[in-house]
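Milestone M4 deliverable, item 7.
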Amino acid sequence: METSQDRLEITHRKVWLLAGPIIISNISVPLVGAVDTAVVGHLPEPHYIGAVALGALIFSFLYWGFGFLRMGTTGFIAQAYGADDQQGLADILMRVLILAFALGLFAVVIGWPLIDFALYLLESSVEVESLAGDYARIRIWSAPAVLLTYAFTGIFIGMHNTRAAFMLQLVLNLSNMSLDFLFVLGFGWGVEGVALASLIAEYLAMFFGFYLLRQPIRDALRQFDRQRLLERAALIKLFGANANIFVRTLCLLFAFSYFTALSAKMGEVVLAANAVLLHMQSILAYGLDGFAHAVEALSGSAYGAARMKAFKRAVLLTGVWAALIALLMSLLYFMFGESIINLFTNIESVRETAYRFLPWIVLSPLVSIWSFQLDGIFIGSGHTREMRNAMLFSMLAYIALLQITVPAWHNHGLFLALMLFMLLRAVTLLYYYPEIRRAI
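Output delivered:
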């Protein structure tokens, strides 16, 4: 356990101790999606890839709509941790775990009609929609496990314990990938096998998360006070922050979902190619997000302790390292992008289409990194209202841009609008950034 002084010491080593495990574990998250795509990408027809892409899209809305359980938790925990408020830590932990479990049960209940509605809205072939529905109706049962795992991750990052967050993701993703190969390539279960692999892996991760957090949970139970847990001001603050992050996350998910929906209208081959390229985008996003998580924990702790010098240093050091890694990722995609695409699929038409649009993914790390870092600062400091407003403006501008770029340049226009959306996110957050510094 860190001392109060250690929590506010910001060094290059501290940045990497926090970011390193998260980078490794985060990269494994889209690798699961990559394996999902790869195992079905070697089946005979492209509609298998499209089905997994659309099925995963539904759960991006349903599960990552509840992503505030991770992000909001990190901010509250980090601020209490920086202020050395042990009672506050215990209360936040209990509130978040109860909320995560309740929302998980709620997601199961609403999931079935939402799946049918989503498949109605998404325009694709009959084969793709049928397989996507099979995938989604299996995955929905994992909701309580997924949302509790989000909460565990937020708690670990907020307490600067990224090793535990790394171990949790490692169990989730290694078991998911292993079961993918077993169920799809071994047993021949196709898209249903991909969904079942995810379901089992998500419950394994949940049980492991309870094991890793066993001591803080015991401590919180010993200090349990129902009246304090239900304190009105604390609940309003928690639900207000989570509501803002919920709106922000839905906007982000809508932006990528709209991208996939427009891809589907361009045909199965373009949909499959764009699914491959978006997995590459996810790999870079999750990799770079390690520094966003680091700045969440470090800037949040400095903000909670009202230490401006530590806050500024956290922003600077994490930003420098994030920019350097973004440049490295662009170079890797430039040199090995086509080889990476070939790992996803052996369907020649999908490969050739993905090659044509690969330069956008080469550019993406240099464009995306700034919005990732600023998101981390706003989440860590708890300025979620401003983050929500910035995202709403960026999303509306993105939708307007698509009406111009797609008719003019088709799939190139789709990727152009996506890159401009990433830039807009950073610019709008920078507009609000001085408010955080004034609040310290």
